[in-house]
């Protein structure tokens, strides 16, 4: 009897070891989910951004649309409380295009229905600093997905549904200095300013992975402490991805309908 129990114990141990060899650690699971999501190339996106003093609800901006993660293009409708209604925002060819809301039409020279700015120019602008641009811009929901390519740590939180879909929740850490943006000479200065603002290159990021191993939700909260002449600011962003792999085509508006407002922004 004792011998049989010993044999069973060895078999249980072997099965446990085999199961352990076949499982992946949370960091690998998150990295694989990022890779699979990019392999699908496209997705429908919905996003929410809240910016304000830490501990307050902040100003909410919401949006939804479709995106091509590989081409870095998106066609979304963004709702900003002060502007009223939804504003169509396109990201294509390194340019950001926004339909001019009636509330500010008189402030945009040229009288054209669209305004545009190069993403590189926006990243270099001092208007608002890099915190809203790289850690919480509602006009470019692809930033949160791209940042996960710089994930360096992850731990398992556990099963947690997202809008009724079974997913697994992971708490991860992104190293801003190893993200694709940090490797881009045009975006690196903005990354460095962001790191200086928040006092660290480590950005906590929660993500939810579905049963197909695809990213379904990404959430980040970034806080810049108070500094002389600048109050403390916190930005919380959540991006949901669904319908991975759907057809997505994004085209810029006709050039004669666009006013480039890049020259109106202060240089960085």
Q: Tell me the fraction of residues in β-strands, as a range.
A: 35-45%
| Number of strand segments | 12
- Helical amount: 25-40%
Shape: globular
Number of helices: 7
Mean pLDDT: 83
Structural class from helices and strands? alpha+beta
* Unreliable runs: 1-23, 126-138
Major sheet: 12 strands, mixed
Give the assembly state of these chains: single chain
What this model shows, in words?
The protein is of the alpha+beta class and 268 residues long. The chain has seven helices and twelve strands. Strands 7-8-9-10-11-1-2-3-4-5-6-12 form a twelve-stranded mixed beta sheet. The radius of gyration is 22 Å and the shape is globular.
List keywords for this structure.
7 helices; alpha+beta; 268 residues; disordered N terminus; 12-stranded mixed sheet; globular
Fold blueprint:
Blueprint: H1 2-22, H2 26-40, E1 42-52, E2 59-68, E3 73-79, E4 86-92, E5 95-99, E6 114-118, H3 119-124, H4 130-134, H5 142-147, E7 151-159, E8 167-175, H6 180-183, H7 188-198, E9 202-210, E10 215-224, E11 233-242, E12 258-260
Parallel strand pairs: 6-12
Antiparallel strand pairs: 1-2, 1-11, 2-3, 3-4, 4-5, 5-6, 7-8, 8-9, 9-10, 10-11
Q: Concise description?
A:
The chain has 268 residues and is of the alpha+beta class. It has seven helices and twelve strands.
């Amino acid at each position: 009897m004792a011998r049989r129990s010993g044999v069973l114990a060895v078999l249980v141990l072997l099965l446990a070891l085999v199961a352990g060899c076949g499982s992946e650690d949370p960091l690998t699971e998150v990295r694989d989910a990022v890779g699979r999501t990019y392999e699908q190339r496209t997705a429908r996106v919905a996003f929410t951004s809240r910016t304000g003093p830490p501990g307050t609800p902040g100003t909410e901006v919401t949006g939804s649309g479709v995106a091509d993660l590989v081409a870095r293009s998106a066609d979304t409708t963004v709702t900003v409380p002060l502007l009223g209604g939804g504003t169509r925002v396109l990201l294509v060819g390194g340019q950001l295009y926004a339909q001019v809301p009636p509330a500010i039409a008189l402030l945009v020279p040229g009288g054209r229905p669209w305004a545009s700015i190069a993403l590189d120019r926006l990243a270099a602008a001092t208007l608002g600093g890099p915190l809203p641009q790289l850690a919480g811009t509602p006009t470019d929901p692809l930033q949160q997905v791209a940042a996960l390519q710089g994930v360096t740590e992850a731990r398992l939180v556990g099963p947690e549904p997202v809008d009724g879909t079974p997913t697994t929740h992971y708490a991860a850490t992104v190293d801003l200095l190893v993200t694709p943006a940090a490797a881009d000479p045009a975006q690196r200065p903005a990354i460095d300013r962001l790191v200086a603002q928040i006092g660290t290159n480590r950005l906590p990021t929660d993500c939810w992975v579905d049963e197909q191993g695809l990213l379904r939700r990404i959430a980040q909260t970034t806080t810049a402490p108070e500094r002389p002449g600048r109050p403390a600011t916190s930005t919380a962003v959540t991006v949901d991805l669904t319908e991975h792999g759907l057809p997505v085509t994004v085209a810029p508006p006709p050039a004669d309908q666009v006013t480039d407002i890049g020259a109106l922004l202060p240089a960085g």
